[in-house]
Amino acid sequence: TAGITQAPTSQILAAGRSMTLRCTQDMRHNAMYWYRQDLGLGLRLIHYSNTAGTTGKGEVPDGYSVSRANTDDFPLTLASAVPSQTSVYFCASSDTSGGLSEQFFGPGTRLTVL
Amino acid sequence: KNQVEQSPQSLIILEGKNCTLQCNYTVSPFSNLRWYKQDTGRGPVSLTIMTFSENTKSNGRYTATLDADTKQSSLHITASQLSDSASYICVVRRQTGANNLFFGTGTRLTVIP
User: Which residues of chain B have a CB within 8 Å of the CB of A41?
Assistant: First the structure.
């Protein structure tokens, strides 16, 4: 079982360019999440989706957009990248969005914006 | 303000020794607390979850404690191994709200031979 996969593994992007980070899960989880992880700041929620067809804003949504057309995929798009978006991005999924549900994380995408 | 604070920020111990990591939180109303282990270059993996009524829970050499009155949790690692070198992240869930997970910044543990 693959679990949750992310692509690409790493990317160097010129400022002003757009990019989509891909995330796919095969666990049929209802909820999916995008986080960024920066040194000294821990994981911060960018956007989330409690179920296919719905999305919501997290703690740091500016400059990012998401879509959830189906259960398995939850892409994150940077429309016009800026250097402050240099970070490691983690996608996660969970069976439900609350209670005792455990979030399962992907391996991460390391993004550098120059 | 809902916060999760972990200490120490980093820790170096000799292989075979024990250590304890701390997590203090102000998240309210409290639902549960989860400890994650994050190996370098990987995503976090859950070690254990603590609910309001649980005081202690073990997962192999990892033992988590929770004091809901003082809003403190600890993760004790017994007989450390080199593979325990990782970041350990405390995550607290609040009962209400759309964005109801609060993450600590983690403790970076290094086990040396």
Answer: 105
Burial class (CB in 10 A: 0-12, 13-18, 19+), A44: middle
CB-nearest partner of A105 from B44, B93, B100: B44
How many CA atoms within 13 Å lie on the side-chain side of A12?
Answer: 1
Cα dihedral sign, A21-A24-A30-A36:
negative
A25 contacts A107 by C-beta, under 8 angstroms: no
Which chain B residues touch A103 with a CB distance below 8 Å?
Answer: 46, 101
Contact A44 B43 (CB under 8 A): no
Q: How many CB pairs under 8 A join A and B?
A: 45
- Read off the tokens for B8: 């120490």
Residues 6+ apart with CB under 8 A from A110: A9, A10, A11, A88, A89
Q: How far apart are CA B84 and CA A68, in angstroms?
A: 36
* Residue range A3-51, pLDDT digits in tens: 999 999 999 999 999 999 999 999 999 999 999 999 888 899 999 999 9
